[in-house]
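Dear V.,

Thank you for sending over the compound details. I've combined the ligand you provided, NAP, with the protein sequence from our construct and run the structure prediction for the complex. I'm sharing the raw inputs here so there's no ambiguity about protonation or stereochemistry in the SMILES, which I know was a concern on your side last time.
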Amino acid sequence: MRVLITGARGQVGHELLRLAPEGFQVHGLGSTALDIGNAAQVAKVVAEFQPQLIINAAAYTAVDKAESDAERAWAVNRDGVANLAIAAERLGIPVFHISTDYVFAGDAREPYRESDPVGPTGVYGASKLGGEVMLAANCSRNIILRTSWVFGAHGNNFVKTMLRLGREREELGVVADQHGCPTSAASIARALWTLAVQYRDHGALQWGVYHYAGTPACTWHEFALEIFRQAHELGLLERVPVVRAIATTDYPTPATRPAWSVLDCSKLHEAHDIAQADWREELGLVLRELA
Ligand SMILES: NC(=O)c1ccc[n+]([C@@H]2O[C@H](COP(=O)([O-])OP(=O)(O)OC[C@H]3O[C@@H](n4cnc5c(N)ncnc54)[C@H](OP(=O)(O)O)[C@@H]3O)[C@@H](O)[C@H]2O)c1
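Below is the predicted structure of the protein with NAP bound, written out as structure tokens.
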């Protein structure tokens, strides 16, 4: 099966290429080879490669920068997805797309289900929601996988930032009043490939929106403590820094962060037998790779 992967140089794109199962002919393109915001380029690449499935791992992911660069964020996260959706529908093929917890307002107390009302609070979340709407409207066979707090050995993420700060500082403050689910890029790639295999073998899936994130839920502060504990154990850090628990208000950012990002992932498990990965084990694999 021929699979076109966009955003192939990003965290998830990288893992999608690395973990492609046997029997899939993968064409992974970075943003220079394929700008998804360019409709003509999308149409050309799709016409040439004739994919049987598109997996979109491309996105404008700079959450804070998006507040002052909204036009670009919308061009990639909404219009780019529309371009892929239209090209896929023309060929009669599905699109698997990755979305985010930021489509929610982040003020809930229970894990978000796919049917819960959305309400993004910033440009990034709104533009990603725009992409979901465009995909659903333009491509009849689509999977939208919302995830959160992505980390991996490749690319920029919280784990890498903590490792750098842990080496530079003896003490640091980490936000302890935001709750979410760290998710390894590799586990997202595995979930998407499991869906691709099911689609290849059965010719259909239960299409629609799904949540997929790591387990258990934690705060950034708890995530940081576990990163330092494991990194120290593996010899990546000489000493564990003091990690102070701080409030969101102590760490102002241009885009507001959801206080509650916990995703209920039971729908994907029930529909497609894909279970959540324990992020602490995934973290161990990533740290070993970095070591
Ligand atoms: N990171 C997170 O914590 C997080 C959380 C929830 C959901 N997500 C979602 O998960 C997906 C994957 O995220 P990630 O962490 O892998 O992001 P990432 O590492 O920032 O990768 C995104 C990739 O998209 C590419 N890209 C940007 N604009 C593009 C364009 N116009 N055309 C084609 N490619 C373009 C970038 O390429 P260049 O670098 O060459 O520009 C980059 O390699 C995204 O949909 C994101 O919204 C991420």
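A first observation: The first strand starts at residue 2 and ends at 6.

Warm regards,
I. M.
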